[in-house]
């Protein structure tokens, strides 16, 4: 720790050695308690009645306790564990401890509420809870990782928030490249495991516990500097890291014994792919598209109508590649038709027109039923019985045995959708870091200056808009076959089931505009939370709104900040700039002389 | 007037030829029938009191405004009133209120300036052939050269918004230069700068002229203008009042009157004007002394 004159005192006045020892002891106590019975009846899901091994929420608590313990021991400077905390030392302990208390407290609360009273708790649960409380209280006695500089007398809340902050890690030790590649593989392996665990959670309590512990644990890993280390390595071996990420994603269906969760994963992939496509339009080019889901619908309906289903007005059956191309082309045409007149204008016209287009699309396909209009789309009944894909005799509708693993039907679509996602990721990253991508960002930043730099604003915006539409159309062609039915109500502006335009936009904003991983994570969360917590359905939109407000207040750049946003909102690493010039950017009209 | 200004040979080609440019906003005529030429290798100054229409005139030249009347020719061809086509043709500009791409890095700002001189479109970016890589590398190299030219090479990775004020103005110049212009329009390049920074900017503009780029500059700092320019034009209430060598413009009583207000008819204020003229002359002699 640096010794400054106004070193910030810990949140609680406990001597540091005692605090550390108590933190470790508390975490160990809770860790031990997960092996005891927490309740007496198996009515509470997850089998928490057995002494000897942990189950369900106990496993999550165990993870929290183990993580807290590891970070605490790293704080002792124990050899072999110090690599765990290259950034902050004590803030990760506090965050892990909070996560531990969160899961433990949630479990105790859930047992008491569901079974009717605290009498249903076995002593094991009390031991665990006491241990978790000790851990959190003691961890608050650990020193801060960085001092508060802007005020000498911080309020307790400021102190608490500061105690969760940590400096960025310094320069890492050189590792041999095989070790670094091994780290990448291990990291993506762990990532796959964590995501799979989340998708596979069988009951809402477990999913809530999962959200709590992963939320805190991931933040702790960030504060510990491990994520910075990892991202440095993945930047160094970019192609290997990308390959590892997709390999990990491709392994997912092999971990599943039934199709139930693979279907969730396929839907997440569709949602995430479309969100990433929207991120080109919104995040890079800064065009607010409120009807983006309609392009998904255009692709899906196109594929459905040429899929050979008996419900189609056209009795044709295109091969899949042709229907993908057709879906992409039709979406592209719609994109140009919508974009060309509106993108010439500045301001919010685009938002209004796209909002209108989204609704017009839904209502139009609902009316092309032979009664209110020509019979094309079957109206509100949609196009059912879209046949499964068949590649050279490989039937997507059947399970197959690959490498000795029995893969369900949805695994085929999962792989196909993964390919579509790889395509979109590739398009995003390549277009983003090129002349055209820079032009998009320039237009977003200042359209007047961008045109004065020779950028044809209309053309460049139209390219972004049409590209986004095309990518959504491609995703739509796969979606039609996955769902086997397309109905107008799948493509609303806002609704409880993603993807819809509002959720797509939310996934982009929540995850982080202009990034690749942001919308993917945002989409995964926004899909899983309603799917897993169905008891929330009435309050879902309310909670969702609250979450967005809180996010905008505390983390405006989204969960994943892109390089620019990080610099924009938090001014990190640019200490050589004097403060007064930061304010000067908007007041450039001062006159000199004369 | 001093050794730094060069007299342009009569044969020099005309880079910019604006004739009869008029810009009306409803009832307000912000620019009225202004003719202005800039020849190759020249630095021309545009002065005038606040609200005289200087920036509006710039906007007419660069296609941000479509002039109500008049034509703008660049190297003999009439410019279409579209900003990106004007830049494509070879006129680059900076803005009075700095308009950098605040959340892009310094390097990216300059790279955006290269837009018109590179061709790689979406397909080329997606397919990443050898041509794309070569063009990207060339753009980077040129951008870094320009950053070295203005002395910001060490801040290439900083966000533009985090630069100190003076550096932001310089970066705007580098971004404009990135489009390889034949004519550079600078709108108050030294506004808000301290005297040292102003002097550095002066040197920068001379260096730009020496690169073969003609410069048209708006400035309120008379010392700066009279040091720098081969020719100065003064706009007052949208009309070009005088044009001539710095010496001529400086001595013109209408210019002084425009800046300080017209005295009541006849004599009462005449001696005041004389006084001010004397003071002006005094200050410029001092300036010359300083710069030489
Ligand atoms: N878009 C516009 N609409 C209406 N009036 C405008 C517009 N742009 C400029 N004007 C008016 O035109 C006149 C000239 O403005 P301009 O900005 O060109 O002056 P300037 O010579 O650049 O002054 P300064 O030295 O203050 O920059 C002003 O009266 C201004 O209010
Ligand atoms: Mg002006």
From TrEMBL, chain A:
Keyword Cell membrane: yes
CDD domains: TM_PBP1_LivM_like
Record membrane topology: Multi-pass membrane protein
An example Gene Ontology CC term for this record: plasma membrane
Lipid metabolism in keyword set: no
Signal peptide: none
InterPro entries: ABC_transp_permease, LivM-like
Subcellular location: Cell membrane
Gene Ontology molecular function, alphabetical: branched-chain amino acid transmembrane transporter activity
Principal localisation: membrane
Transmembrane segments: 21-40, 60-81, 93-113, 125-142, 181-200, 206-225, 237-255, 261-285, 292-314, 320-340, 347-365, 410-428, 462-482, 502-529
Keywords, alphabetical: Cell membrane, Membrane, Transmembrane, Transmembrane helix
Protein name: Branched-chain amino acid ABC transporter permease
């Amino acid at each position: 720790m640096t010794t400054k004159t106004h070193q910030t005192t810990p949140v609680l006045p406990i001597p540091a050695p005692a605090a550390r020892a108590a933190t470790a002891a508390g975490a160990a106590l809770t860790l031990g308690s997960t092996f005891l019975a927490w309740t007496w009846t198996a009515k509470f899901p997850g089998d928490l009645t057995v002494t000897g091994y942990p189950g369900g929420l106990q496993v999550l608590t165990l993870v929290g306790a183990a993580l807290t313990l590891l970070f605490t021991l790293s704080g002792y400077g124990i050899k072999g564990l110090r690599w765990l905390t290259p950034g902050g030392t004590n803030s990760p302990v506090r965050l892990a401890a909070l996560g531990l208390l969160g899961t433990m407290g949630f479990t105790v609360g859930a047992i008491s509420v569901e079974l009717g009273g605290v009498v249903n708790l076995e002593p094991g649960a009390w031991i665990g809870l006491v241990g978790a409380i000790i851990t959190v209280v003691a961890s608050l006695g650990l020193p801060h990782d960085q001092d508060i500089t802007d005020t000498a007398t911080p309020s307790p809340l400021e102190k608490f928030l500061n105690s969760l902050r940590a400096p960025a890690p310094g320069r890492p030790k050189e590792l041999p490249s095989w070790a670094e590649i091994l780290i990448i593989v291990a990291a993506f392996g762990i990532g796959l495991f964590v995501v799979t665990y989340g998708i596979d959670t069988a009951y809402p309590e477990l999913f809530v516990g999962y959200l709590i512990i992963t939320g805190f644990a991931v933040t702790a890993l960030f504060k510990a500097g491990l994520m910075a280390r990892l991202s440095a390595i993945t930047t160094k071996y970019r192609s290997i890291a990308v390959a590892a990420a997709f390999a990990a994603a491709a392994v997912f269906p092999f971990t599943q014994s039934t199709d139930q969760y693979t279907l969730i994963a396929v839907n997440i992939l569709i949602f995430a792919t479309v969100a990433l496509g929207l991120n080109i339009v919104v995040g890079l080019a800064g065009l607010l598209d409120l009807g983006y889901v309609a392009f998904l619908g255009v692709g899906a309906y196109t594929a459905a109508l040429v899929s050979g289903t008996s419900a189609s007005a056209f009795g044709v059956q295109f091969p899949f590649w042709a229907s993908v191309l057709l879906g992409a082309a039709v979406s592209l045409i719609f994109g140009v038709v919508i974009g060309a007149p509106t993108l010439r204008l500045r301001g919010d016209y685009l938002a209004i027109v796209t909002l209108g287009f989204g609704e017009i699309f839904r209502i139009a396909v609902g009316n092309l039923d032979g009664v209110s209009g020509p019979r094309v789309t079957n109206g509100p009944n949609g196009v059912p019985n879209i046949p499964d894909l068949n590649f050279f005799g490989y039937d997507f509708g059947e399970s197959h045995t690959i490498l000795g693993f029995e893969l369900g039907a949805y695994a085929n679509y999962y792989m196909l959708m993964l390919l579509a996602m790889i395509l979109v990721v590739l398009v995003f990253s390549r277009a983003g870091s090129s002349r055209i991508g820079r032009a998009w960002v320039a237009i977003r930043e200042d359209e007047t200056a961008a045109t004065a730099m020779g950028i044809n604003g209309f053309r460049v915006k139209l390219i972004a808009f049409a590209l986004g539409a095309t990518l959504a159309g491609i995703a739509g062609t796969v979606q039609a076959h996955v769902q086997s039915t397309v109905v107008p109500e799948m493509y609303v502006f806002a609704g409880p089931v993603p993807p819809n335009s509002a959720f797509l936009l939310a996934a982009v904003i929540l995850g982080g505009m202009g990034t690749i991983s942001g919308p993917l994570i945002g989409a995964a969360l926004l899909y899983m939370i309603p799917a897993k917590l169905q008891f929330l359905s009435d309050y879902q939109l309310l909670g969702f709104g609250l979450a967005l407000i809180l996010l905008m207040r505390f983390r405006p750049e989204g969960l994943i900040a892109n390089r620019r946003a990080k610099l924009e909102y938090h001014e990190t690493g640019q200490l050589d700039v004097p403060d007064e010039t930061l304010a000067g950017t908007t007041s450039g009209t001062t006159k000199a002389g004369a | 007037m001093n050794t730094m200004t060069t007299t342009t040979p009569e044969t020099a080609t005309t880079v910019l030829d604006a004739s009869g440019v008029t810009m009306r906003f409803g009832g307000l005529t912000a620019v009225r029938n202004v003719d202005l030429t800039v020849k190759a290798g020249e630095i021309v100054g545009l002065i005038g009191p606040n609200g005289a229409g200087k920036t509006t005139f710039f906007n007419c030249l660069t296609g941000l405004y479509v002039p109500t009347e008049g034509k703008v020719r660049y190297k003999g061809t009439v410019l279409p009133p579209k900003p990106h086509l004007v830049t494509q043709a070879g006129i680059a500009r900076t803005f009075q209120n700095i308009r950098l791409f605040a959340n892009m890095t310094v390097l990216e700002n300059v790279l955006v300036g290269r837009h018109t001189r590179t061709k790689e479109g979406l397909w080329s970016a997606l397919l990443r052939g050898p041509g794309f890589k070569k063009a990207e590398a060339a753009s980077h190299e040129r951008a870094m050269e320009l950053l070295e030219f203005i002395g910001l090479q060490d801040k290439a990775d900083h966000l533009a918004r985090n630069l100190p004020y003076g550096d932001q103005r310089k970066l705007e110049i580098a971004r404009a230069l990135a489009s390889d212009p034949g004519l550079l329009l600078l709108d108050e390049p030294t506004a808000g700068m301290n005297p040292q920074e102003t002097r550095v900017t002066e040197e920068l503009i001379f260096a730009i002229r020496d690169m073969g780029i003609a410069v048209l500059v708006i400035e309120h700092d008379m010392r700066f203008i009279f040091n720098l320019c081969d020719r100065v034009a003064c706009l007052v209430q949208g009309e070009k009042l005088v044009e001539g060598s710095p010496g001529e413009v400086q001595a013109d009583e209408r210019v002084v009157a425009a800046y300080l207000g017209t005295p009541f008819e006849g004599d009462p204020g005449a001696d005041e004007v004389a006084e001010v003229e004397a003071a002006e002359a005094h200050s410029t002699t001092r300036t010359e002394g300083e710069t030489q």
